[in-house]
Write a structure and sequence with these properties.
By secondary structure, the protein is α+β, with helices and mostly antiparallel strands. 32% of the residues lie in helices and 17% in strands. The chain has 5 helices and 7 strands. A hairpin with a 5-residue loop joins strand 4 and strand 5. Helix 4 crosses helix 5. The chain is rod-shaped, with a radius of gyration of 29 Å. It starts with a strand and ends in a 16-residue tail after the last helix.
């Protein structure tokens, strides 16, 4: 970090100073008079455009930040796994039937209705999943568990299955 005078400011520089609350990238610099300079700059966080007219004293208080060059030397597999993690973690926000689409099942309409329009919309998930034999309770339970694991809402789950009474 170094202090500047107006001849040092050029397009593309990154500045920090009193005229804006964030770091900015200089878009244009024009000398208006011997002691005033116009600076056009865009903020990094807000992308807001700043266009102050600064005196030589104001410019002396600015700091130029040296931009470190990006290094693209990461391991390709690690990058892929990192991106895949975030894709899976956020997929449900863009695809409401995410668990169905990544599973190798063809759910019936009653199963999608039960899981996605009834069970997942309840504020407290404590329920008994009961239906006729062959209606797909196992598939519904699996879809529910998969959706909530993807969304990070469950850590543990208890499944109680009643067996047939012995004769």
């Amino acid at each position: 970090m170094s202090y500047m005078d107006k001849e040092e400011i050029k397009q593309g520089d990154i500045l920090r100073g009193l005229f804006c609350p964030e770091n900015v990238r200089v878009i244009s610099v024009k000398s208006i008079s011997t002691d005033q300079t116009y600076i056009g700059a865009a903020g990094f966080e807000t992308t807001r455009y700043y266009n102050p007219i600064l005196s030589d004293r104001d410019i002396a208080s600015l700091k130029i930040l040296n931009e470190k060059p990006s290094s693209f030397s990461a391991d390709g597999l690690s990058l892929f796994l990192y991106l895949e993690l975030h894709r899976i973690r956020n997929a449900f926000q863009f695809d409401p039937l995410d668990a169905v689409n990544v599973s190798q099942i063809d759910p019936l309409p009653n199963q999608i209705e039960a899981v996605y329009h009834r069970i997942l919309h309840n504020p407290r998930i404590r329920f008994l999943l009961a239906d006729d034999p062959g209606a797909g309770k196992t598939i519904m339970a699996g879809l529910f568990i998969k959706e909530w694991r993807y969304r990070g809402f469950i850590e543990r789950i208890l499944i109680i299955v009643l067996g047939r009474p012995k004769k």
